[in-house]
Amino acid sequence: MNLWQEYRQPSTIFEAIQDLTNAPQPALPIAGGSDLLLDIRQGRHAPVHTLIDLKGIPEMNLIEVRGDHLFIGASVSITQILNNPLTNQHAQALVEACNLIAGPQVRNIATLGGNVAHALPAADGTIALVALTAQAEIASADGLRRMDFVELFLGPGRSAINKACEIITGFYLPLTDENQASCFKRIMRPQGVALPILNCAVWVTRKADVVVDTHISVGPGGPTPFRATQAEDVIRGQAMSEPLLAHALDQLLTQAKFRTSALRATAGYRKHIVQGLFKDTFITAWKRAGK
């Protein structure tokens, strides 16, 4: 069985948009294809006539500093993110998340853009990018634009991007400054399902013993990637302490909407394990920011 009828390899973002809108339909962009091709083969995705291969577009394969942001192209492989000194310096939570995605062979071809485009509320790369307050760069016939990362998601598997005429081309992350750090951790079943029971990412800025600012994300904490803004408000500007983290956890549990998954865990179990996961992730980021 042919998984597609036509395969195009544009060399620029403009050509990719032209192909996406003008090629025989249905047409879809592809980079690594580690999820998309499997979904098509197993009948979880509608048939595709034209695949638009984005891997040959130089701008989408870059990791570089642009002003006060780190740019990561959407076609960059997970392995490249793991090995790049810029991501290790400025996006440690993302590196730790990428290190837990599948195995080495998949990480060599899978891309950050593909991880995000699936719009799953607990995707490891996605949860890390939420805590790092990333912006997404989107290409369309009107040119390039940026949007807040969390605005990409409408619900489980539902992206705000119009895949018929728009492409995620990359991500912008603020550069890590002095006394700032991040961390990502997850809990998963010991065998069988490779998806996380729960994961957590934290970014923090500290000054001595005061939490100047923090961003906290947990997945799955709702139908879209969840940011614990109420917990952040409790912590921000306060002296670090065990009671402070306990108060923040109460707010996280109040705001999050944990659900029961037949394959992974019950809502009650997630509420139980998030307590240790959140504390461990936050304290690790806190200690890193003090070095």
List the helices and strands and how they pair.
Layout: E1 6-8, H1 13-22, E2 27-30, H2 36-41, E3 50-53, E4 63-66, E5 69-73, H3 78-83, H4 85-90, H5 92-98, H6 104-109, H7 112-117, H8 124-131, E6 135-140, E7 143-148, E8 153-155, E9 158-159, E10 167-174, E11 180-188, E12 196-207, E13 210-219, E14 226-227, H9 229-235, H10 242-255, H11 267-289
Parallel strand pairs: 1-3, 2-3
Antiparallel strand pairs: 4-5, 5-10, 6-7, 6-10, 8-9, 11-12, 12-13, 13-14
Can you walk through the features of this model?
This protein is α+β, with helices and mostly antiparallel strands and 291 residues long. The protein folds into 3 domains: 6-53, Uridine Diphospho-n-acetylenolpyruvylglucosamine Reductase, domain 2 (2-Layer Sandwich), CATH 3.30.43; 58-174, Uridine Diphospho-n-acetylenolpyruvylglucosamine Reductase, domain 3, CATH 3.30.465.10; 183-289, Enolase-like, domain 1 (2-Layer Sandwich). The chain is built from 11 helices and 14 strands. It has helices at 13-22, 36-41, 78-83, 85-90, 92-98, 104-109, 112-117, 124-131, 229-235, 242-255, 267-289; strands spanning 6-8, 27-30, 50-53, 63-66, 69-73, 135-140, 143-148, 153-155, 158-159, 167-174, 180-188, 196-207, 210-219, 226-227. It has a 5-stranded antiparallel beta sheet with strand order 4-5-10-6-7. The protein has a 4-stranded antiparallel beta sheet with strand order 11-12-13-14. A 3-stranded parallel beta sheet has the order 1-3-2, covered by helices on one side. Helix 9 packs antiparallel against helix 10 (242-255). The longest helix has 23 residues, at 267-289. The protein is globular and about 60 Å long. The model has no long low-confidence stretch (mean pLDDT 93).
